[in-house]
Every structure is written in structure tokens, then in C-alpha cells.
Amino acid sequence: MVEAKSDSKVKKIVFKALRSTVKGVIFYGIYFFTWMLLSPISEYVPELQQMIEAFVIVYISLMIIEELFLGTIFQYFFNVTKSLFVIGYLIFSLKGGVFGITFQNVNLTIDFRLFLSAAMLLSMLGLSKSVLQAINYMNEKSEFSKI
Amino acid sequence: MISITTTFFWIFLIAFFITAVYSIKDVHFNIGKTQMSTTSDNKIVLSLPISIENRGFYNIDYFSIKTTISDKNGSIITSGSTLMPVIRKNDEIVINHNMTINATDLLHKNESYLFNDSELIIYEVLGLRIAEMIPIQASANFSIPWGAPFYNFTLGQTRSNAYNDTHLRVTIPISFENHAFFDFNGTIQIRMYNSTDRLAGEGQTNIVVWQNSPYNGSIEFLAKMTDFTDSGCFEVNLQTSLFKYEGMMIPYG
């Protein structure tokens, strides 16, 4: 009985690990394809690759951790962290929406504020969804414990 | 359901962003050689042909270019702006960016442009909006040399010899270099005033000067012997197809 229980636990963990690995690989694949399209721009913005890579590393790490904690309250905790990270990272990397670089004698300013607003709204939606899911999870838990 | 919607919007937003940024790579600008022409009211029109080839995924809106030319002290000489409301995708257009300079006004404000080489500061601002969502602005500051059309304008040693019993034939050598980026033709008029400020004589000559070339010539005129003195001053008036400059006083003797 105890052996069967520990077997199913191991299976669960292996399944979670596999799932998170697959998710991570898919996400990395998307990044790889996206980078191929964006690479010509990195000639003008040398720090672009570093910026995107840092984002991808942290995002994939949070995604894997979230997957590993699937079915627990920490899943929502990491989901919220992920959404907050996306919001913070976008504000930080796009310098508040108005991105400026100097190339030789030319000052280039790109206004990403509209894009940033859309991305922030979507992130906020993800954040609120996670918070509501966490509340729902806690409610369900307390109902079970009462019964 | 909300997860699917959010994911769908994220994919749409990221795809839109990437294609918009990727589109910039396929927008090509070509700046042609500056053309110069004159208007009927003697203004110089500098025309810069700009060719824009939009091979990106989206239209380009509000393409604008603004040029401000100022002197070393920051005083604005001229400015010009050109706006193209829409450049459709897979389209190639050529626009002329024009700037008008009133050379006569400019030279009256500061005659050193006529006689001394200098430096002009050009401030260029280029703006456009890609994919109807992302405004881009590029600006650059650079300087270009200004070549004086009458650089080193000099009146040589005045020569005079008897023409008849009452008059002298006066010859005044003139030399200068045209350092300007344009050719010009016109007249140089000289009035000779004696030591009592009385007009002794006047003459004029037609000139045709090519850019970056020296001019050596002279003006001959008759002056009354009784009015001719060893010292006095010349009033020089320059009139060309592009500008007019009057009242330059150069002492002699």
C-alpha cells in the first residue's frame, strides 16, 4: 500500500518534470525562432540579445518552478511572480515606453507606450487571474477541511 | 477560457511587435544629390530628393522630415519641413525636401557670409509611425562648411592715366575667390568718392564666376581731374542673380 503510494508520487513528480521540460523547450524554441527574426536589429542595439536572454532565462525558470508546484498554493504564487516580473521587466527594458539609443551621431527614439500599455494590461489580467485562482484554491481547501 | 483568450492576445501582440520591428529592416531610404534653384524673387531653393522604399509588412504613416540650418551662434538661417501622410507597403516614393534661403536678407544680417568661409550647423529630425502604433523619431546634428562667394575680396592698386584734358581713366583691379557651392553671375559697381566725399566717378563690370574658382578682373571708368584726389573711398555694390549687397565702403590712398 505504502509502496504503491510512493510509486504514484514518483510518477507524479516525473510527469511534472516532463511537462515542465516540454514547456521550457517549447518556450525556448519560440525564443530561438523569434531571435532569428530580430537578429538584424541587434547590430544596432548590441545589448538587445542580452536583454532578451535574461528575460527568457528568468521566465523559463519561473515557468518550470510553477509547473513543479502544480496543484499547490505555490503554483499561484509563482504565477503572480511571473506576471509581476513581466510587468517590471517591460517597464525597465523599454525605459517606461520611450526607448532611446544613440548610434554614431544619430539619436533614435522609439515610442513603445501603446505596445507597453497593451502588454501591461495583459499581464495585469494574468496577475488578477492568478490571484483569483489562489483565492478559489484556498476556498476549496477550507471547504474540504470543514467536511 | 480566460487563459485561452490571454494566450491568444499575447501571441497576437508578440507577433505584431516582432513583425513591426522586423519591418523597419525592410524600409530603405536613399538621399539624392542636393539640387539648387532660384525663385523669381531671388531666393535660393535647396531641394533634397529622398527616396523611400517600404518593403515592410505595414504602412508607414506621418513620415516627416524637418531641417533647421543655423549659424555657429545658434541663430536660425532657414528651416524646412516635409510631410508624407502615408507610404503604403510595397510602395516606393520620391519626395523633395525643400528649403528656401533668402540670400539677400542673410547677407544683410551678417555680411561675413559673403566674404568669409564659415560653418553651418544642420539639425535634422526624421519622424515616422510604423504599423499605425509605434512612432519613431531620429535626429542628428552635424555641421557643413559654408564657402564665401566673395572670399578674400580685394581692390588692387588704383591706376590712373590721362584720358583727355578734363578726365582721367581710372582702373581698379578686383580679385576674389568663389568658395560657394554655386556659380553666379552679376555686376560689380564701384563709386569713387574723393577726400571731400564728392563723387569723382563710377563704373561697373559684369562678372561670371564658377564655384571654387578665382576671379581676377578690373573696373575702368572716367573721373574728373578736378575731383580726383589721392585719398578717399570706394563704394562697392554687388548684384548677382542670387543676392544683392550694397554700400560696402573701402578706403583708398
Q: For the record, give the distance between the C-alpha atoms at the N and C termini of chain B, rounded to a whole number.
A: 99 Å
- SS class of chain A: mainly alpha
Global morphology of chain A: elongated
Overall structural domain count of chain B: 2
Instruction: Estimate what percentage of residues of chain B fall within beta strands.
Output: over 45%
CATH class assignment of the largest domain in chain B = Mainly Beta
Largest interface: A-B, 21 and 23 residues
Mean pLDDT of chain A: 84
The SS-based structural class of chain B is mainly beta
> How many individual helices of chain B?
3
According to DSSP, the number of beta strands of chain A is 2
Q: What are the segments of chain B in which pLDDT stays under 50 over at least 5 consecutive residues?
A: none
- CATH architecture assignment name of the largest domain in chain B: Sandwich
- Describe the global form of chain B: rod-shaped
CATH topology of the largest domain in chain B: Immunoglobulin-like
Q: How many strand segments of chain B?
A: 16
